[in-house]
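I hope you will forgive my troubling you with a question about protein structure. The full record is reproduced below for your convenience:

——
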Amino acid sequence: MAECREASMAHSDLLGRAPRYGIAGAVAVLLVSFACAHAQETAGPKPLQAALPRIEANRNLSPAGQLRDGVLTVRLEIRAGDWYPEAETGPTVVVQAFAEEGRALQIPGPLIRVPEGTEVRATVRNVLDKGTARLYGLHGRPGDAKQPLEIPAGEIREIRFKLTSPGTYHYWATTTGTHLESRFFADSQLSGALIVDPPGAAADRVFVMGIWFDRGVRGTAPRNGQQIAVINGKSWPHTERLTYEAGEPVRWRWINTSSDAHPMHLHGAYFLVRSEGDGNVDVTLPAEKERLVVTDRIPVGGTRSFALLLEREGRWLFHCHMLMHMSAEYRYVEPIVPGAGLRPAVGVHHAAVDSTGMAALVLGITVLPGTRPAPPAASTAPARRLTLLARERLATDRSPAAAVFQLQEGSQAPALDAAAVPGPPLVLTRGEPVEITVVNQMREQTAIHWHGIELDSYDDGVPGWGGSGAQVTPSIEPGQSFVARYTPPRAGTFIYHTHWHNFLQLTGGLYGPLIVLRPGQTFDPETDIPMVIGLGGALDLYSPVLLNGSAQPEPLRLKAGVKYRLRFINITPNGNGFLVSLFAGSSPVRWRAVAKDGADLPPAQAIEQEARLVIAVGETYDFEFEPTTKGDLRLEVMRPRNRTLVVAEVQVR
């Protein structure tokens, strides 16, 4: 069965991210994999098995083991059990999980949390019927990372180490491979948090992300698979609901032991990235290097500590911005082509599990009025009124069908055949109130989110969740409208986009740049240039990459000695980000970073650097660029995973 094991690993690689095979090799591997699955399922009757123990969701509130005189004693086991990632009444998935000896299995595994300087004396027993568990992460910090500890079925290992470096870490195990990126199935939840607290540490919460994926193979042909992504063992709407007071200090630690990266996005407020790590090393950022963001990408194996700046009451979301990790449509998935990733399964009914249409890596936050003064009242000046049409543009000989935004000036709607993707720049002014009437002229519901804007929850654009008290944000039904009211409190680059769970709306074109200027500033499209990265179609990872709506953008014409502001926006639905580079020949030029997610960078971060950066889904970056000599440059936007790209010629004259 060695071929089957190899095919299984190769198939995981194909569905999972970085294929090592060409199309012919991929087809061959898949055929062997399907045949092996069929052979295993038809190998004869299987004996009845005893009921498996129930796996509990771990909120990471209670540390494991016994801590005495600076020594933590903890006894862990690896066993199989029934996991309830959604409701406590089902459905269930059989997976492997960690447990403390004599206690219930947990996802994520038992929390190891100790003061700085603690010695850990641990045992880990492999109680699985068969297979060797490879254990990572139970070692000293800093350093001391070793080869995995191998624990054959039925055996036990003892481990001793000391934790002298405060930080956010994790431990994990696998029974199928050697990398976090390749854990999809039964061993995908074998992970736990390892936290080392410095003296006088403030109270915080710990969240661990995981993904389980059923590859969807039965017999000799693929079927629709299922994907479950969880936070502390649960998938929205069954994730924990959190409540804070406005102005209350909120400290979170996040750990990504899943097989994919996650750009985590906060609605209605900013948060500070205070530390970052990879599970073995954790780096506390000095104050001048802390990042003020609304979206931060956590790579596979990555760790973060965040401080949330929650100032406005209402109901808010914190979620992965990739649709495949926050939309109920992706609960059932299918491969696009071997190695290309996943899309919602064709012909499968995607029943929304709640009125928001969301699922998976989503947390709900309720902010109550606090004792701290509320943000300054909005201007009493008359609101500027805009009308934004959400429309369906039919395919023509010149352009494909698309979902589009158009601004309506006066009573006459603009010509639909003039609509473009992305939507027109919405140019607002800091401190000036605006009322935007969104009119839905499509055949299905929608909702519009003002990504990065600090505003009231009701206007934020999350139907079925946003608002406060009994007030709940509605969806915008076909033929109906919704008025969003807000006063932008800061100048910067933001995004307006659909927040409806139908991924075709986002891939189809319902997005655009939202630019907020300083009072007295005017928008000059000659020197102030939005660069919106989107996709051209519904096939996600094999769709053409679009820059400002085109896979073959017109040349960008600049003048030597003139300073330009380039506003980059990544509003693609999925993926590990895009590598954006500005080249002179084969070498990147230099530009100066000025803003991230609409927030101006502090002096220590607003520095000149190589014009080369990965921009994750849901992020915006602003750069100043002043070409000094005439010549031709090249702007590349590349998808690192399969190296598809769009190239824009930059002519400096």
About this structure: Residues 1-48, 217-223, 336-340, 345-352 have pLDDT under 50 and may be disordered. The chain has three helices and 49 strands. The CA atoms of residues 160 and 321 lie 39 Å apart.
